[in-house]
Structures are given as C-alpha cells and as structure tokens.
Specification:
about 300 residues; Rossmann fold; two-stranded antiparallel sheet
Length: about 300
C-alpha cells in the first residue's frame, strides 16, 4: 500500500488546478533557456505561459522588462510582470499565487532571480513551496550552444524537444515521504501524456555468507526489487506503471542521473520533505546533486511528513 499525502497537499499538487506556467527570468540567456520546457509544459497542460522578473529598484524596471520581453517574444503586458522587491523569492511566490500558476525555473542563471547552480533564490523557492514546481539544472535540456538571433536565444533544430521522451520517473528511497510522491507523480504523468516509472537506487552488494543475514548497503533499501514491485502494484502496475532498480557503486545521485541521460526520461519526480535518502535536510545535498547533474527537468513535489 502506498503512503498518501494529506488532502490539502494533494489538492495543491494536482496539475489540473493550474491556470498558467510561471517562469522567473532575470535577463540572462541561461535563465531564458528554461522557456522551451516551460512552453512544452504549458502545452501539455493546456494552459499558457507567463513571466515574472524582479528588479532591485524602480530605475531597473524598464531595462529589465525590455530584456525579458525580447527573450520571451511577446509584447503582452499581462504575460510579463516586472516587480520591484528586495526579496525575489517572496515576490515570485506571490505572483505564482496571484495567477494560480505552476512555477518552472532555471537553477543556473547569474542574475537576481536564479543564482549559480542551486542558487539562494531557487533554493528558497524549492524549500518553501507548498506546491509542485519544475526546475532545470545546468545540464537539463541545455544544448552546448544556443543559437542567437538578435536578443533571442534559440535551441538547435536537431536538439530533442522538452518532454518529448516517454516517462515520468518517480524517485523513491524507502521513506514514506518519497513514496507519497508516487500517486501524485502518476497524476502528473497522466496529465502530461507520459508513462510512470518508479525508480530506486541501491548499492550492489554480494549475497550474505550466512543464511538470513542482512545485506548491508551504504545506500538503498534491503530488498530493492521487492520494494519497487510493491510500489508499482500500489500505483496500478497493470496500467503501464514500470519499476526500475538501479545498482550503482557510487551513490543515489549518480545512479539517477545516469539513468535519466540514457533512458527515455522526460521528467524526474523528487520529494522535498523526506528525512533521509534523496532529501536529508529539506532540499538536501543528494537531491540538489540530482537536479544539478540531471539531463532532464525535475518535478519537485512537497509532501507532508
């Protein structure tokens, strides 16, 4: 049986409740590289894309708006919001609530909105969000060189389209909190037209010498095959839900990232409140490593402990 999130968290997490996809931009090309994924996400959910940008002072508003409009490719005032606030994360969170949006953001820009790697603003939004959000690390959907046309950066024609792969992969680690994401991930997979894969990573250890002795692993559950099979059955395994166990000698993050780079993965689903494994300290080191090195975007799902 799968652990479930509470009713309030589940209601906030359902993809059908959103009216927009909200993208924080700061004028940098790296932040704007999230736009193809945001538009693909909006298209699959049947909603539109909006942009928010945060200026440090009134003097910055006009220039920042011009940069963002050039990147976003629209002159519609209601699709681009530039606000002045000393706390970019709070401003972005308020805008998300105002327009009932799911947040889709880069984590590798160099301006006010998205700091280097998992920057302070991105981290604040990830760890404080009561709702799912989609984040792209520096290697997710990043062509080695974007094609520049004027102020607009475009992806090469031969680069795979965002969300064009087949599976949403829910990463679980043996904790009830991570397991709680499976049913929500299944809902998101259905809304996005993707299949669902339940994945766990474990250290590959030899069988115990003595009968009934425990296999001591540095990471991973004791019987990963049976564990994943149970979660697949609980999520409706007869309806196309797959289970995968990755045996990796190094750790959880390398196993997840290698899998996302070589298999047909459109999106990774991670939790933000489990107390071990993928999430040790809120948005902990292992989860941050997964996002930072993954070849695809991550759907971050907050759950109730």
């Amino acid at each position: 049986m799968l652990t479930r999130v509470n009713d309030l968290t589940a209601a906030r997490s359902m993809p059908g409740r959103y009216r927009h996809v909200l993208v924080p931009l700061d004028g940098s090309a790296l932040a704007a590289a999230v736009l193809p994924t945001a538009r693909a996400l909006a298209g699959r959910l049947g909603i539109d894309t909006h942009v928010v940008s945060v200026a440090g002072s009134d003097d910055e508003v006009a220039a920042l708006r011009a940069q963002v409009v050039a990147q976003f490719g629209t002159e519609l005032d209601d699709a681009v919001s530039v606000v002045v606030d000393a706390d970019p994360a709070a401003a972005i969170g308020r805008r998300r609530t105002e327009i009932e949006a799911v947040l889709c953001m880069s984590t590798h820009g160099h301006g006010r909105v998205v700091g280097a790697m998992i920057g302070s603003v991105a981290r604040s939004l990830i760890t404080s969000s009561p709702e799912p959000l989609v984040v792209l690390g520096p290697h997710a959907d990043r062509p080695t060189s974007l094609i520049r046309t004027g102020a607009v950066y475009r992806r090469p024609a031969d680069w795979p389209a965002p969300l064009s792969q087949s599976a949403l992969v829910a990463c679980v680690d043996g904790t009830p909190e991570s397991e709680a994401t499976v049913l929500l991930a299944a809902t998101w997979a259905e809304s996005l037209g993707l299949t669902l894969t339940v994945l766990t990573v474990a250290e590959d250890v030899p069988p115990p010498v003595q009968a009934n002795a425990r296999n001591w692993r540095r990471f991973g559950v004791d019987d990963p095959e049976a564990y994943v099979s149970r979660l697949v059955d609980g999520a409706g395994g007869g309806q196309g839900v797959a289970g995968v166990v990755i045996y990796d000698p190094i750790g959880v993050a390398p196993g997840v990232d290698d899998y996302s780079a070589t298999e047909s993965v459109a999106l990774l689903a991670l939790t933000t409140s489990a107390r071990s494994g993928l999430e040790r300290l809120r948005f902990g080191a292992t989860a941050a490593d997964i996002v930072r090195n993954a070849a695809v975007a991550a759907l971050i799902i907050p759950t109730s402990s």
